[in-house]
Every structure is written in C-alpha cells, then in structure tokens.
C-alpha cells in the first residue's frame, strides 16, 4: 500500500471523489486529514478552474488535504486519471497528519508526519505562480471559480 495526499477534486465532498470509492479502480482507504509540511502554491487555473499544486516547495502555503492508503491498482488508475506524467507528476512530499483519523486508527502522542505521493505540476505557465495561493480547496468555495467536471467538457 502507498499513501497518497489529495488536495483538490479527489477529496471527500468534491466532484471527483467518486473515483476513490470505486472498487473497480482498486482500493483507497481514508487515513487522515493532513497538511503539507512545506508550503506549496495551490492555485485554481485554466478554463476548467482546476486546482493545481505547483511544484515550488517553500513557496505558497501549507496545503490541507486528505491522506489515503491505496493499492497498486488504484495508484496506476490515479496515474492515468491525473494524466501522469504528461500533465501532473507524481512526486513524494511530507504531510503532517491532523485530527480526523479513520475509525479505529491509533491516536499518536505527538503530531505525525508521513511520506505521501502527490500529483503536482512541475511545468506550468509562469503567470500561474502569481495567482492567489490557497491553503485548502473546495470546488464551491468563496474563490468563485467553479470547477468544470470532465463529463461537461
């Protein structure tokens, strides 16, 4: 099993979360909410208002999201779903686990940091780095940039 940190449309309550729940793609089990240890720019960009984590560690904000334990089959599906490596790159980063743990998960005595895979953008239009940086994403959030789901494109 691998740990994957999701920060955008794959989170619970967001438009693409259903793909994590679909057993036909493999297994994905929610582990905890989390926050990147390092800051990164999380921006909303492009004609479909997609949330992008720009691979600029040390810039931006500490980004909140969710950590999932996924099997190899789900990891391969997510690579395809995220158009990796053509559009997104799957890289590793450290995530601090927050309080919302899966039922039955042990409570650590101190904040726990784990290594996770994340889908981020290493190449992007330079102006994206100047867009507003978010610490959390909600497709219907106060930013007013409503996500356009794939099925509507």
Automatic annotation (TrEMBL):
InterPro entries per the UniProt record, alphabetical: AIG2-like_dom, GGACT, GGCT-like, GGCT-like_sf
PANTHER family, per the entry: GAMMA-GLUTAMYLAMINECYCLOTRANSFERASE, TROPONIN C-AKIN-1 PROTEIN
Boundaries of every Gamma-glutamylcyclotransferase AIG2-like domain copy: 4-125
Listed GO MF terms: gamma-glutamylaminecyclotransferase activity
Catalytic residues as annotated in Swiss-Prot or TrEMBL: 82
Catalytic activity: epsilon-(gamma-L-glutamyl)-L-lysine = 5-oxo-L-proline + L-lysine
This enzyme's EC code(s): 4.3.2.8
Lyase keyword on record: yes
SUPFAM superfamilies assigned to the protein according to its UniProt record, in alphabetical order: Gamma-glutamyl cyclotransferase-like
Skewed-composition ranges (Basic and acidic residues): 132-153
Record family assignment: Belongs to the gamma-glutamylcyclotransferase family.
Superkingdom: Eukaryota
Name this protein carries in UniProt: Gamma-glutamylaminecyclotransferase
